[in-house]
Amino acid sequence: MKIQKTTFGMYTRAYKLTQGTAEMIVIADRGPRILSLRVAGGGNLLFVDKEAKMGRGAWRITGGHRVWMGPEAEGTYAGDNAPCTVAVKRGALIVEAAVDPKTKLQRVLAISGAGGAFSVKSIVRNTGDMLASGCVWALTCVRPDAKVLIPWGRPGEWNVRKICYWETWGGSQTSNVASTQWKPMGDLFVIDPTGEQGKVGTTGYEGWIGAIFPSENATFVKQFVYQENATYTDEGCAIECYTCAKFIELETLAPMTIIHPGEEACHEERWIVRTGLANPARPALIRKMLR
Length: 291
Known about the structure:
With 291 residues, the chain is mainly beta. Helices cover 4% and strands 48% of the residues. It has one domain: Beta-galactosidase, Chain A, domain 5. The chain has 2 helices and 25 strands.
């Protein structure tokens, strides 16, 4: 993986990572955030809040990929607007946020090459002297014109399919369970966004969530290791997806854990981005990308 210093919009401390035909840009001015992902000279597949005004309290969404600590609570929205520290170790770019003064937690992104893909490690580190409980939550904001692909069954002959709908949450947020953007198919649960706000989740036995971008002729898949018999938050969902008019969030979660002082929890995703559109009606070809 090639690493180069660059700029990105208003951000002057940015790093361009190149792996084959795929390109990623990570910023260290705040966050950290991955704010750009493209393939073969195409457009950015990620959503960017160019003015960095969207958010809740001191926290700003900024866009792209971020590290959170779940389950969703007040502490999840701790501001991460301070500059980050950056290091390159053994070919990996490591971007560390400032330690949150209240929780003593530190968010870290560690990115390296992984064959023809990127390895993206979302890390939460406990720098305090008390225990921290929760789960590492890896959220990636993509453009709202993406179509989302979620495997929603359990592999094998005893196949139970599961989708959870967030009908109401966070005070005023709602999902229309009857929305036409939800399209359950035989093997995949497809989201063809209408611009409505909504959120769904599933167990995530297969360990991946994907999106296709017709306007860019590109496919993006986030792959992770699902840990059977572990405890996952949100009714046992390791995969979640949020939709709204401005962006879509592709979310994967690690199991619930306790982070002891001086230790960290890491959730690794393999990011695969390819030219060409995966066909939801032929999921076997999508799974072939993951091998």
